[in-house]
Write a structure and sequence with these properties.
With 185 residues, this protein is an alpha+beta fold. The chain contains 7 helices and 7 strands. Helix 4 packs across helix 6 and helix 5 packs across helix 6. The two termini are 22 Å apart.
Length: 185
C-alpha cells in the first residue's frame, strides 16, 4: 500500500489542525514546519485573512463569541473551519479550500454552530446533525446506537440507509471504514 505524506510535510501546501487538548490552539504544517497559527508566516496569515475577508458572517460570529483581536479571530477561524488533521491540504497555491468537517466536542452547544463549522459532506449529499451522530457510532450495534441516542432501532436503520445513499456505499462495513478515514471513530 502506498501512503501519501501529509500536506505541508515536504512542500508549501498547508494543513491546519487543532491541538487535541486545547481547542483554543491551532497549528499549521507547511514547508516541513509546525507552527501555531498566531505565529505563522506572513504568507500563511495572508491566506487566512483573504479567506476571512470572503466570509464576513463568520468573522461576525467570531466577534460575537468574544474573539475581538485579529490574532484570536484567525486562530479560531482556522480551528472551526479546518480543525481536522486529515493530511489533505487545506490551502494550495495561496488559496484556502472548502472548510472541512471535524468532530468538535462543542457541536450542538456552540452558538456559532452552522455558521463557522461545516456539516459532514459525503459523495452524494450532506449529513444532517442526527445522521452525523449515528455515523459517529456506526461501529456499534444498531441497538446500542438507538439506546445511546434515545431513538428507536428502526430510526437508526433509516439513518444508516440515508448515510449509505449519501456516501454511495453498500454496507455497514464500508461505512465503518469511511467513518474511520474521516476520524469520526
Amino acid at each position: 500500500m502506498i501512503r501519501t505524506l501529509p500536506a505541508g510535510l515536504i512542500d508549501n501546501r498547508i494543513e491546519f489542525f487543532n491541538d487535541p487538548v486545547n481547542l483554543e490552539v491551532s497549528y499549521c504544517l507547511t514547508e516541513g514546519k509546525v507552527t501555531r497559527v498566531r505565529d505563522a508566516s506572513a504568507r500563511v496569515r495572508t491566506i487566512i485573512q483573504r479567506d476571512m475577508d470572503k466570509h464576513p458572517g463568520k468573522v461576525l460570529a467570531l466577534y460575537n463569541l468574544g474573539y475581538s483581536s485579529l490574532e484570536q479571530q484567525m486562530e479560531k477561524y482556522v480551528s472551526c473551519c479546518f480543525g481536522a488533521f486529515d493530511g489533505e491540504a487545506d490551502a494550495t497555491d495561496g488559496v484556502l479550500h472548502h472548510t472541512e468537517y471535524w468532530p468538535c466536542p462543542k457541536r450542538g452547544s456552540c452558538p456559532a454552530a452552522g455558521v463557522l463549522c461545516s456539516p459532514l459532506v459525503l459523495a452524494y449529499g450532506t449529513l444532517s446533525t442526527r445522521e452525523t451522530e449515528v455515523f459517529q457510532r456506526v461501529a456499534m450495534l444498531d441497538k446500542e446506537i438507538a439506546d445511546e441516542l434515545k431513538i428507536s432501532e428502526e430510526t437508526v436503520k433509516i439513518h444508516l440507509r440515508r448515510i449509505r445513499q449519501k456516501s454511495g456505499l453498500d454496507n455497514k462495513k464500508e461505512l465503518i471504514k469511511l467513518a474511520y478515514q474521516k476520524n469520526l471513530i
